Amino acid sequence: MGAPYVPTKNKLALDILKEVKFKKNGLFVELGSGDGRIVRTAVKTYSVKGLAVDVNGLLIIWSKFLSKLDGTYPRINFVVKNILAVNLIRADYIYLFLFPAIIKKLVPIFDKELRKGTIIISHGFPISEYKKKLIKKVDRNTFPTYYYKI
Questions:
Q1: Spatial separation of the C-alpha atoms in residues 102 and 64, rounded to whole Å
Q2: Residues sharing a CB contact under 8 Å with residue 58, sequence separation 6 or more, in sequence order
Q3: Is residue 47 within 8 Å of 25, Cβ to Cβ?
Q4: Class of 10-149 in CATH
Q5: What SS3 class is residue 68?
Q6: Could you write out the DSSP letters of every residue in 28-58?
Q7: Which end of the chain, N or C, is less packed with Cβ atoms under 10 Å?
Q8: Confidence of residue 142 (pLDDT cuts 50, 70, 90)
Q9: pLDDT at 1
Q10: What pLDDT does 115 receive?
Q11: With pLDDT > 90 as the criterion, what percentage of the chain qualifies?
């Protein structure tokens, strides 16, 4: 719905996340989580709690299995759901690698639900409505990564 499943390489996942100052036990939400690689990396590396959301039930089953293998499972909640219907009120960090059309649909939800200080990491595409909230852009060989602070 938001983008095709394209797994992120492990090194790239680490590179994307190293740009953020995580607080222990903060809630990291991956919207359109696929195999859960980003949320699992965040949980394992930065001791945050995770929420993985994907509309594809098979990918959620696969990511839950991978999470059990790497020991992150107890700290991640896996949900099969449309990302536009997820409650984001408790989110401290949000990661997305989605097409601009779905990002545009998420902005009103972000405006309504996200607390001041929430970090949004948008890999691949900018959030044009949040130009003034951009705190960092990292150009990469494939796609740039944009970091926003609400």
A1: 25
A2: none
A3: yes
A4: alpha beta
A5: helix
A6: EEEET-TT-HHHHHHHHHH--EEEEEES-HH
A7: N
A8: confident
A9: 55
A10: 97
A11: 91
Bridge partners (DSSP) of residue 147 are 121, 136
Q: How far is CA 108 from CA 10, 28, 32, 114, 140, in A?
A: 31, 19, 18, 10, 28
Joined together, the tokens standing for residue 12 give 């790239």
Q: Maximum Cα–Cα distance for the chain, whole Å?
A: 40
Do 83 and 75 form a contact (C-beta atoms < 8 A)?
A: no
Can you give the residue ranges of every domain in the chain? Answer: 10-149
10 half-sphere exposure, CB direction, 13 A CA radius = 3
Strands (E), 55-104: 76-80, 93-96
Can you tell me the distance from the alpha carbon of 40 to that of 18, in angstroms, rounded to the nearest whole number?
Answer: 14
Q: For residue range 40-53, what is the model confidence (pLDDT) as tens digits?
A: 999 999 999 999 99
Q: How far apart are the C-alpha atoms of 102 and 105, rounded to whole Å? A: 5
Angle (nearest 5°) at CA 39 between 35 and 43: 130
Q: Label residue 2 by pLDDT band (50, 70, 90).
A: low
| 82-109 confidence digits (pLDDT tens) | 999 999 999 999 999 999 999 999 999 9
Beta-bridge partner residues of 137: 146
Q: What average pLDDT does range 54-73 have in this prediction?
A: 96
